[in-house]
Amino acid sequence: MRAIAQFEFGSADVLRVCDMPMPTLRPHDVLVRVAATSVNPADLRARRPSSARSIAREFPLVLGYDFSGSIVELGSKVAGWQVGDEVIGCPSLMRQGANAEFIAVDHRVIARKPKALTHVEAASLPLVGLTAWGALVDRANLREDQTVLIHGGAGGVGHVAAQLVQLLNARPVVTCGSSQSLAFCRDRLGLNTCLDYRAEDYADRLLESTQGRGFDVALETVGGDNMNVTMSAMAPLSQVVCIVPSAIDGLRSGAFMKSITVHYNMMTAPLEYERQPEKLGENLATLAYLVEQGQLRPVVDRVWPVSEMAVAHKALEAGGVTGKLAIDVADGWLN
Amino acid sequence: MRAIAQFEFGSADVLRVCDMPMPTLRPHDVLVRVAATSVNPADLRARRPSSARSIAREFPLVLGYDFSGSIVELGSKVAGWQVGDEVIGCPSLMRQGANAEFIAVDHRVIARKPKALTHVEAASLPLVGLTAWGALVDRANLREDQTVLIHGGAGGVGHVAAQLVQLLNARPVVTCGSSQSLAFCRDRLGLNTCLDYRAEDYADRLLESTQGRGFDVALETVGGDNMNVTMSAMAPLSQVVCIVPSAIDGLRSGAFMKSITVHYNMMTAPLEYERQPEKLGENLATLAYLVEQGQLRPVVDRVWPVSEMAVAHKALEAGGVTGKLAIDVADGWLN
């Protein structure tokens, strides 16, 4: 089969089309013909050289942590799925990814593709949807009427998280770093409170947006110094879900004095696939259901054919994306 | 009335016996004649000069965040209490403390003194008991059969936390730094797994004590570099309750990769007294009930008369305490 693989860590230029053996099915796996995938920060982290790499990688390495496609073969212990079913999923970081004609994936982590979406749209949902749902619902236990801070409201995780907060009857406040992103959040997502983090009085306006009470929940997607900004805007006994490996100064940040709970949340972590694959599948089915009900929609910013994967990586690295960058795998190989 | 007060921040030598006006009752307060108090690390932090002081302090400052005594007067909005009732409590850090003949305290945060304990024993329970209960039950949601790491198992919070873990049918593993403390944990508390953190193979033995699975819950009472030791011994998706204002390196510590939840927990934080005083009172009543049932017992290491408060402070600073350092306030003024 054809795949986009890399034989060393490096810039987007290490990505190349090559022939790979067909994936071998484990008993719980289905084999999926990939119709579309998308690009996530997880691809960039896995692709680059890193001194802090926490997952062992072998070459040739195939990235791609989202897919939409159709089942072409079933493993020996697979129940509930048929050849021909159209499915979506967020495959494990520990195995070869979806930037290929076929992927072998544990059937417990997949869900039916929402009919309302194209493959390209559907492939833009799993990783960011599972990240946002896992963070807000499973970790922070988000409840009605809570006020939620979402950094990067126009980003992949951010734009889905903001929608989820609204449909859970809580109140999102998003931050953005460009007028384009602010317009996207207001006009496409219908959000009322969108703050420009470049503004001089940003920290004040953040706290004002909660009438001075502080946020009940925050989704920390930036890390570094931003963590202190987040902590200063939180309410006592509030919940911060940190999806980046940021450091926290308990005293200086105010986290200790306010008895804040910090949930580190590494989505696509090996542990989730080993410990609770069914939970990932259930969450993804819930997200697909919300899409079918018209309550949730991943927004695709741009689409490339799979042969231009390196261009898509560079676009994500350049920033300024509103929504998701998707990859059409069905036709792209012909280019 | 007489009190132990200080007129500047400094060493234990700033503490002196002096005359103070009687406390003024707020509507929800009761006035308690203090029979006994105890010394906690919170006293040392409040007494010393600090660049990181988070609570404003005015002189003369009266410390003392535990008491056992009897009610002598009721505020206008107090219900459920009578003059003469023997009560215990952990007063707010925001007000004058219990190192005095009398203290004014919100009736919602106090509980009946367990009859099974002397005043000196009873005054050793509230702060450490509320800290341990709040951390393990309210924050970490401790469940049966979980494995719990408790640093400083012979210390004030540690020795009560270890007992609570046992009576909640979970499994405590305690760490100590002296043979005396290890003997205390084994012989007085009946704990099976007590590890010496001075041992060379300490980190290995910590993980072995969980059969390699890692801890479900940890009570972090040390902070600093110890946080990395704690994180390395935790299971994925586990809970660390941090009762010191420690910093966390999300990546290097492994907290991110294991999706660990860190609950900062500042006991005696103003917010608990402002937001949920009834909860503190309920928790203290539960602790008193467990004492009456013979399931929990604070251990008093040494007792001093109140006039020797500075000696007690120095003893806590010197370390090596097994259990609590208590102060007899009823008679001590005569010395």
From TrEMBL, chains A, B:
Molecular function terms, GO-annotated: oxidoreductase activity
Where would I find the Enoyl reductase (ER) domain in this sequence?
Answer: 10-327
Name a Pfam family for this protein. ADH_zinc_N_2
Query: According to the lineage, what is the superkingdom?
Result: Bacteria
Specify the protein name: Zinc-binding dehydrogenase
Q: Which organism is it from?
A: Hydrogenophaga crocea
